[in-house]
Amino acid sequence: MSRVPYPPARRDDIVDDLHGTPVPDPYRWLEDPDDPATKEWLDAQETLFRSAELEGRDHFRERIAELLRSGSVGTPSWRGERRFFTRRAPDQEHPVLYVADGNGERVLLDPTALDPSGLTTLDSYQPDKEGNRLAYQISVGGDEESRLYVVDVTTGEVVEGPIDRCRYSPVAWLPGGEAFYYVRRLAPSLVPAGEEQYHRRVYLHRVGTSPDDDVLIFGEGLEKTNYYGVSVSLDGRWLSISASRGTAPRNDLWVADLVASSPQAPELVVVQQDVDAQTGLHFGRDGRLYVFTDLDASRGRVCVTSPETPGPEHWRDLIPEDAEAVLSDFAILDGMAEPVLLVGWTRHAIGEISVHALESGERIGEVPLPGLGSIGGISERPEGGHEAWFSYTDGITPTAVYHYDALTGETSLWEAPPGAVEVPEATTEQVVYRSKDGTEVRMLITSRPGSGPRPTILYGYGGFGVPMNPGFSATTLAWVEAGGVYVVAQLRGGGEEGEQWHRDGMLGKKQNVFDDLHAAAEHLIATGVTSPDRLAISGGSNGGLLVGAALTQRPDLYAAVVCLAPLLDMVRYEKFGLGATWNVEYGSADVPEEFAWLWSYSPYHHVREGVSYPATLFAVFASDTRVHPLHAWKMAAALQHAQAGDRPILLRNETEVGHGARAVSRSVELSADQLAFMARHTGLKVG
């Protein structure tokens, strides 16, 4: 294999002094996507990528598309006899929003009918308390800049919108469907240049009035990177507002009695403030306030109190912290003589649901599940009842919706995904290994019968408390069916073992995450699953940072790397996209101690000339407003310059898509390119 000739990229003599440390940045010019030199370089990179020999691309494209023909279905949201849900048929590019009632099912919103180009996505939806109106949010081209609309459920007529600047906005309806609380950013003209993605506020909006006349409820004078949550109890009496600085694993929380004070000027009472914990509230139909918190309980607990006395000193444990399982969800079923509480857990990332007496919290049973997989979205009827719905998936089972009846104790399939697909025989086993510091870490290994060493993909994320739970993946199954092994490591920084597991992989402890990945690779090699010349690593976003650090720290350990939408320049990451909201996870280069953490592993700054690096594919998206593609552009230029070996460093740029949801066909193309690249450089023969 001969060395690939790379497009020329000038190296500028730019060196910043940060806290006495010289920080070189030779490719800073690539931070400007409008610079003609950047455009010329990107065009040349695209030509180089398209000329790459990826023999398995057609095979993987066809197989992944076939597996995705399972379609999808979402858990229902009930409002009286109406239920709202999403479903994607086998040939559809996007899930469609439906309403069902005594007259059957109707389409409320089909993103493809709205925009035949496939570039419009449904970001979220929220029916009002009666089910007569529904707020939904859509964005175009992957920019995630949600615009909010309201539709009349009976007629399908849009009665409100668009309201812009609603990215990540919750919608909390007041009874009657005439008004709702929501979150909106300030107009760009009202904020300093470069801060247009921040400065959110909570407003009260009345349907049919101009958003310019909305009543400011909360957020004035607070931290610019705050995210806000807002909810209103079923009876409309209680308002709760939460605030968290960026993605911090803690929040401040307030409640207001909307009977004692008006919805336009709620008198907010502090539940918790300046407390290092995450807490959420649910106002029960029985008049009690249910508190879901990790305060003094890293794996979570459920407490009860009265809405009139919401502070922690009044909380009484209902479901105490479990020694091994992480509490993920709960639902109240009160349509029988003895009401119960369903509690969702993940035990080492495997889902389970327990049944408890609502008054005492005593465990009295469990909900039968289809297998060892993941559960999600336990929902109930808001007005009460004896039924619950939840989703279930595992490594070979597409996500389906199940129904639980508390009167009979039975679980049954409610709705399967609409497409029938032939899934390859494969098994998933959870393996425990030890990291560098002796910590026990787990990973899920999916494979078909056979012996190693085999071409293997090791995937990880390790950040923001996000757990890597088992689930159906067309990409995984296509790789395994072709003879490879697919491994998902449950690294520190994630949420698999609770909040402390997250904190053991953030800020000054971020190196633990990289050590966990290296140890996973070494375990797979030592046990004969794979070998260094057959091992690829893959990750996106924070997982892109993970594999970027891994390839610079241990280039000898990996044959190939796929790095999607990554953070890689950890000295300047706060200056772009939503970076400033993540300094609570990584630290800030403005703070000397925190700069030292970032400088110790920042992948872009650890590329060294004369090193033989793994074959590396960077994939970025032009409309990504979370993580700017410049991270991958600069890193690709640095690696291409430094590469001493003959394995290629390639850059895949994609337009009109962003960090999040996309059309199915676009997902298929991306996954096929990734698998074909890793197959070529781990020796997996395809087709």
Keywords, separated by commas or semicolons:
687 residues; eight-stranded mixed sheet; 17% helix; alpha+beta; 11 helices; five-stranded antiparallel sheet
Q: Overview of this structure, please?
A:
This protein has 11 helices and 39 strands. Helix 2 (57-67) crosses helix 4, helix 2 (57-67) packs across helix 11 and helix 6 crosses helix 7. The chain is globular, with a radius of gyration of 25 Å. With 687 residues, the chain is of the alpha+beta class. The longest helix has 19 residues, at 664-682. An 8-stranded mixed β-sheet has the order 32-33-35-34-36-37-38-39, with helices on both faces. Strands 3, 4, 5, 6 and 7 form a 5-stranded antiparallel β-sheet that branches. It has a 4-stranded antiparallel β-sheet with strand order 8-9-10-11.
- The multimeric state of the shown protein is single chain
Shape: globular
Radius of gyration: 25 Å
Query: Given the helix and strand composition, which structural class is it?
Result: alpha+beta
Average pLDDT reading = 97
Give the proportion of residues in helices.
Answer: 10-25%
Fraction in beta strands: 25-35%
Order of strands in the sheet with most strands: 32-33-35-34-36-37-38-39
How can the largest sheet be summarized? Answer: 8 strands, mixed
Please mark out the parts with pLDDT under 50 across 5 or more consecutive residues, or reply none. none
* Distance separating the two termini: 22 Å
The count of DSSP E runs of length 2 or more, i.e. the number of strands, is: 39
Number of helices: 11
